[in-house]
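To assess whether ligand presence alters the predicted conformation, the chain was also submitted together with NAI. Input:
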Amino acid sequence: MTPEQQTRGRERELAELSTPVTHVVSPQRSVWDYSPAPETTKAAIADRYGLFINGDFVTPRSRKHFASINPATEETISEIAEANADDVDAAVKAAKAAAPRWAKIDPRERAKYIFRIARRIQERSRELAVLESTDGGKPIAESRDIDIPLAAQHFFYHAGWADKLRFAFAGAQPKPIGVCGQIIPWNFPLLMAAWKLAPALACGNTCVLKPAETTSLTALRLAEILQEIDLPPGVVNIITGAGATGAALVNHPHVRKIAFTGSTEVGKIIAKACASTDKRLTLELGGKSPNIIFDDASIDQAIEGIIQGIYFNQGHVCCAGSRLFVQESILDEVIAKLTHRMKALRVGDPLDKNTDIGAINSKAQLATIHRFLEAGSGEGAQLHEVNTSTLPNRGYWCRPCFFTNVQPSHTIAREEIFGPVLSVMSFRTPEEALLRANNTPYGLAAGVWSDKGSKIFDIARKLKAGVVWCNTYNRFDAASPFGGFKESGFGREGGLQGLKAYVEL
Ligand code: NAI
Ligand code: MG
């Protein structure tokens, strides 16, 4: 093909993309649409849950409960116990009492408990997926194929380490730290619980875990699993509640280590609280990750990567590729193809297997996203609302969208939105792409798309980010360490590096 023919072919392709999608008309129906594909597995949910302390579900000393809402229907699905400082104290005491025996148990036996947790998660995986999607709003396709399998994988992986720690830290005698306080967010509830608990247990520590207040149900189901596999009482305690509960855990004098995943704002509060103590701390905080598309990339593949990067889990992802940098020569093509692809995304019922984008996790998060949408338009960026999914009458929804004409100084180019909103910017040279990508207070993740290996390695090396994905995005593995630089936090989770946070050397 001559270059002229190539250009003409490309122009024709783009023209086809920008003509409106015309639906095939059947005699009975005006448009073709998917039939509903509802998930049929049922997950029982109790009216009320207690706290999981010392191997039992107990009534909170606070006598208080709060509602857990299904964000797709706004219905209250259960009442969750709100742990106060006394409850936190009881949980930490149980963990402290259980610590010496758990630390001394033969590591091969410890591994067996962790393997059993992993297997039980697999056996109950469909139920856990339904629960996760009902409580948190994420599409069942994601909770079923990503969250739950990865949660099991983290327990499998770390079970394997339990009796091999001497080899992980050659020449040292790794010892447990003691009681670990672990506070997790609402975007990957069970997966984050697994990320925190699995390495801590493998290294012989005991735990007090606090799930996020909008998504407690899968952690409480995990507590049932811990009972089923006969984990010794007190080794894992799960206390529910909001920020005050988390703060009481952070400030408890018998907690030896805090692991936190959540907002940078709360991370800073926790860092201050731990600064005057000898508590160890790891923080996994927010991000504003760049996804860079060079003109020599495979564009169709990159489009899927952009979608996966920002619209996965409604954009509630700390490493979301929320700043898209596209080389100027392919900007029009990328925008046209992205627009075309986004029209096909289906927003709606999280329990429908065809859903791509589920419900926004909470009313508060939806309000935050709306504030960013207003700020973007207000500061002069152009909003493209290209998806026209019909939204359910109730629930918290946001169609996927993107902004162009974004300046680096705009709020939407600097701050974490945590929603299905992408900021598109362009660049001319690799140097400019790097400068702009690294111009952020965060440093959690990044993506690079190019068919040229040497370019990928050069750029990846110079990006200041904990994880750099090359020609892919949002891939996770228990063996691969995850964590950030700068305001994205410190410490690593997963892999050999992640074990370090849970041992005394
Ligand atoms: P958050 O940081 O308040 O919540 C995360 C966890 O911290 C929850 O379990 C919460 O109960 C707990 N927590 C809150 N205040 C605490 C305190 N003072 N001491 C100890 N624990 C405390 O996040 P939030 O308010 O739900 O979301 C706000 C924004 O934070 C989001 O819009 C998003 O930008 C960001 N975020 C980032 C996450 C990440 O994975 N990096 C996860 C969740 C939110
Ligand atoms: Mg909920």
